[in-house]
Specification:
alpha+beta, 6 domains, 5-stranded mixed β-sheet, 29 helices, about 45% helix, about 20% strand, flat, disordered C terminus
Length: about 775
């Protein structure tokens, strides 16, 4: 989760303070905790713009806390612009403002567009995108906290008559009747679109998860109509948490067992807050039930100690009320399974059809053998007869031995009522797709006198199954390197790929995984079929999470990769690149998981090494690219100094024997010292001096090229870590300064001195005393 700013933390503390205070005071107010005065739902003044449920909650709590007569709010700048400024020393309420200025594709997180681009899309295409919210904290003030009541009292009095408390509005019996009509209409919409609401004689209101129904006692069994309304709302809010809707943890059975005690208590808080906000929408006061009053201390402690509870409460409350609002608008709230099946079926209609069965059938009708193919549908008592080529289905156009009237009579004697005739191809060709043949019987037959002789049957089960329902070798949720969840699919006989699911499907998958393991396989396959159909209709949604994605890296330079876990350092990756085994680098949990899911594990490990050691691989390629440029610069320098040019020619001549020389072929004493240095300090740079030139192994040459931006002055040759090449020409002051900058070990091939054997070249006593031997980082 993204770390909150200090402004967001302060806003959350203020929200917790308002909610905790209201819950604490409920026990002394007959259970009433919200909107005791019966004000309307909070809005912006004077435009009347509505706010989200969670924002409305805290605006109303703020209004209650300060004794305001309305739930109308304004920004400080807007109040000042109207000439009704906020009074001194007034504390506002935080407002969570979401700026929807970007939109992301629901199944492709990389596809992000601006709001302007989104508005230009067709309505159907817009449904494939969702807004990316950027949360900002604004501060609102109630109009009673401004100078409006003093600056324009007439306007203020009119506002009270319209949006004030029940007393200010003059609540009457007519208002009570309108409330009854409004709530009865609400219950009818819930019954039709969300959950059945039934009468129950037990006197105990409850929601049954198994039957997915709300049971309410008679209205007269409640002391007050408001109590009846809120209890019905509590049960309807509970219904939104059903496994096939929002799948809240406190509403889901786990392997036949009820939710945990903590989950039940949190669910109770969601129900009380959401039903309270819905009461606020109706302009009614909200109160806590007797059971909920016992949980106030627990809730307040959790609100203060659990840093994620407020965010979870915001999401759960807003989602629950959004489901109810959809049902109010007449939208049928389908079970998630039914919705996914419908979406899958719609997408499957767009998939390419398969005609394996029809192609097989056309091979069998034969005029010489007088054989025909009969496709019988027992359920509809119909049959399709495929005649050989040249036998027209038209009347009076017969082939000897294949009279259509006789065939029809023979089939009717077997109970077939409707018979149709076809050719293998052409105008009367028979070519239904494979799904057509489900539950049908296909036989090769011959007309013998007045009866049909069945010669053989055609087994079409595999083809129908393949066309009707794809099988999967693997279905797994995996994470990419940005911690985003993707669904990995490996269809039978096909290559695997990943696709990013919708947020609703992700929530349902993980809630099912966490809460009811016995149902997870059904959900897994349901999502697999849905996103397979989506990927087939929109192939650009397929993503590959098993490659490095780097186009500029030569994977052939990676010889060996090993990935393993350690107790101290976690998961590590060791790679051998260009013949040199590199130091291990850390592997993330997501990369480790993908390794075990990958079809080709060895290939994935190679790509993983390319990702982790990309800097090493790119350095080697940079050296080769710049080598030609360095050689050209050296040639120009030789032209300027003829004497140097002659010396250079001699140096090249004497050094040519070392240009492609193996390190192991240098003098034994020198090679032993080289091995010792590399063993003690693997990243140290070692130079070999031969004549007036300096040579280094290809691996050290790579470091020199990158550290000093001086590529080796030699022609490009195949990379070999065991060869030494020319890196510096001439033994002059400039060369020695460059060697000094590298703090490299220098070994004289023509006769090493003791000082050169024991330490870095060209270092002063002061440097050796104050500084340990540095290592070159590659």
């Amino acid at each position: 989760m993204k770390e909150k700013s200090q402004i967001e933390k302060n806003a959350e503390e203020r929200q917790i303070e308002l909610l905790s205070t209201a819950l604490n005071e409920a026990s002394n107010a007959g259970g009433h905790w919200l909107n005791a005065a019966g004000k309307g739902f909070p809005k912006f003044y004077p435009r009347g713009v509505a706010v989200s449920p969670f924002n409305g909650l805290f605006m109303a709590l703020h209004s209650d806390r300060n004794g305001c007569k309305t739930n109308l709010f304004t920004l400080y700048s807007d109040a000042k612009a109207r000439g009704t400024s906020v009074r001194e020393h007034e504390q506002g309420v935080p407002f969570l403002f979401y700026n929807w200025n970007k939109y992301v594709h629901r199944n492709n997180p990389e596809d992000i567009i601006s709001r302007d681009a989104y508005l230009k899309l067709d309505e159907e295409v817009q449904k494939q995108y969702k807004g990316i919210h950027n949360r900002e904290i604004r501060t609102l003030f109630n109009i009673d906290q401004t100078t409006l009541p003093y600056v324009d009292k007439e306007e203020y009095d009119m506002v009270l008559l319209k949006d004030g408390s029940a007393v200010e509005r003059g609540y009457s019996e007519a208002d009570e009747r309108r409330l009854h009509i409004r709530f009865n209409d609400f219950l009818l919409k819930m019954r039709d679109n969300l959950v059945p609401v039934r009468s129950d004689g037990s006197g105990m209101p409850h929601y049954e998860t198994d039957r997915d129904a709300v049971y309410m006692p008679r209205q007269r069994d409640f002391g007050h109509y408001n109590d009846y309304v809120q209890e019905a709302l509590r049960q309807i809010v509970s219904a939104t948490g059903h496994q096939q809707r929002l799948a809240r943890e406190g509403m889901v059975m786990k392997n036949g067992m009820g939710p945990s005690e903590d989950a039940l208590k949190q669910e109770r808080l969601i129900v009380e807050v959401a039903s309270g906000i819905k009461m606020l929408e109706l302009g009614l006061p909200a109160r806590l039930s007797d059971k909920s009053l016992e949980l106030v201390d627990y809730w307040n402690r959790e609100l203060k100690e659990n840093p994620n509870l407020m965010d979870a409460l915001e999401g759960d409350v807003n989602n629950a009320l959004e489901v109810i609002h959809k049902a109010e608008r007449g939208e049928k709230i389908e079970y998630a399974t039914m919705r996914n099946r419908r979406q899958t079926s719609d997408m499957q209609e767009q998939l390419p059809k398969h005609f394996y069965v029809a192609d097989e059938i056309r091979k069998h009708p034969n005029k010489e053998d007088r054989t025909i193919v009969i496709v019988i549908d027992p359920s509809s008592k119909s049959a399709d007869v495929i005649l050989p080529a040249g036998a027209s289905p038209e009347v009076d156009n017969e082939v000897p031995g294949m009279n259509k009237a006789r065939i029809g009579r023979a089939l009717r004697r077997e109970g077939i009522e409707n018979v149709r005739f076809f050719n293998p191809d052409g105008t009367w060709g028979y070519r239904p797709d494979d799904t057509y043949f489900a539950q049908k019987q296909i036989s090769l037959a011959r007309l013998k006198n007045w009866a049909l002789e069945m010669l053989s049957t055609l087994d079409i089960t595999p083809a129908v199954k393949r066309a009707d329902e794809i099988g999967f070798d693997q279905v797994q949720m995996i994470q990419d390197d940005k911690n985003r969840w993707a669904l990995y699919l490996k269809p039978e006989h096909q290559s695997g790929y990943s696709i990013y699911p919708d947020k609703d499907d992700l929530n349902r998958f993980f809630s099912t995984l966490k809460q009811s393991m016995d149902n997870i396989e059904n959900v897994r396959m349901e999502l697999a079929h849905k996103y397979y159909a989506l990927a087939e209709t929109q192939p650009d949604l397929k993503v590959d999470l098993f490659s490095s994605g780097a186009q500029d890296i030569d994977l052939n330079r990676i010889q060996r990769v090993s990935v393993f876990k350690t107790k101290q350092e976690g998961t590590l990756c060791v790679a051998t690149i260009d013949g040199k085994k590199l130091q291990p680098r850390s592997v993330t949990r997501q990369q480790w998981q993908r390794m075990w899911v990958a079809e080709d594990r060895a290939k994935y490990k190679c790509h993983l090494a390319a990702t982790l050691f990309a800097d090493v691989l790119r350095k080697g390629q940079t050296q080769e690219v710049t080598a030609g440029k360095r050689q050209e610069e050296d040639t120009q320098q030789q032209d300027k100094d003829k004497n140097s040019k002659q010396a250079d020619g001699e140096a090249q001549k004497t050094g040519s024997s070392l240009k492609e020389l193996s390190i192991k072929d240098i003098p034994e004493q020198m090679y032993g010292k080289y091995e010792q240095i590399k063993e003690e300090q693997p990243e140290a740079v070692v130079l070999f001096k031969h004549g007036n030139n300096y040579y280094a192994s290809m691996y050290d040459a790579e470091t020199i090229a990158n550290e000093l931006n001086l590529p080796p002055s030699k022609e490009r040759v195949p990379y070999d870590a065991n060869k030494i090449i020319l890196v510096f020409e001439h033994d002059n002051e400039e060369t020695r300064q460059q060697i000094h900058a590298l703090r490299a070990y220098v070994m004289d091939c023509d006769g090493m001195s003791k000082a050169q054997q024991n330490g870095p070249a060209e270092t002063t006593d002061e440097e050796n005393e104050n500084e340990q031997r540095p290592t070159m980082r590659r």
